Each structure stands twice: as C-alpha cells, then as structure tokens.
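User: Hi! I'm working on a homework problem where we have to compare a predicted structure to a textbook description. Could you give me the structure for the chain below?
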Amino acid sequence: MTIRLSDLGQVFLVCGKTDMRQGIDSLAYLVQSQFNLDPFSGQVYLFCGGRKDRFKALYWDGQGFWLLYKRFENGKLTWPNNEEEVKALTSEQVDWLMKGFSIIPKINVSKSRDFY
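Assistant: Happy to help. Predicted structure tokens:
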C-alpha cells in the first residue's frame, strides 16, 4: 500500500536528527514549541532519525493524530542536517524524498570562459 503524503496536506520536513523513540505527543510538542507551527493544522510533519533509513510522519485529520512510520529495506533518505529548520516541500520533492533522491538538486555552476 502506498500513501501519497502530499495528498494529505502541505508537507513539512523537520531537518536534522529526531529521536525516533518519540511518540505523537512529543513530536506535536516539538513542532509547536521549537518551530512555532500548529500540529493541529492538517499539515504533515516528517521526522528522521540518525540512521536515515526510516522516518515518521505526524498528521492531524481533524479527529485525531496519525503517526506513520516507514523503514526502507534498502537505501537511505537524503535528509538535511540543519536542526533548527523546517522546510515546506512541494509534492514533487516529497516524491523525490520517498524514492531516495535529494530534495535539493545540486547544480555545479562553472565560471564562464572566453572562447577565441
């Protein structure tokens, strides 16, 4: 079964490592106290631990919280390290993340050269 997280609402990625032992109440408190966001807003919040092979998603559906947990059997997530940041993701970025790709494409800019 595949769940498209972006279909649930705006997806926010909580950067850095999160203690994956935390449950609904602790994660909701983290969203509210550290990032001044509303965990009851119907948005999806993603958290990743140090291994980067699993993540949790916290979602309020209007009646209660959902805590989704996914562990990848092969591969790892590319997760931003800045612990004091939350990134709003596009649906395309969510799809990239779930497939193991980076949400920030790397483009190498080279210096322009004169040809003559």
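For your comparison, note the following. The chain has a mean pLDDT of 87. Residues 5-98 form one domain. Good luck with the assignment!
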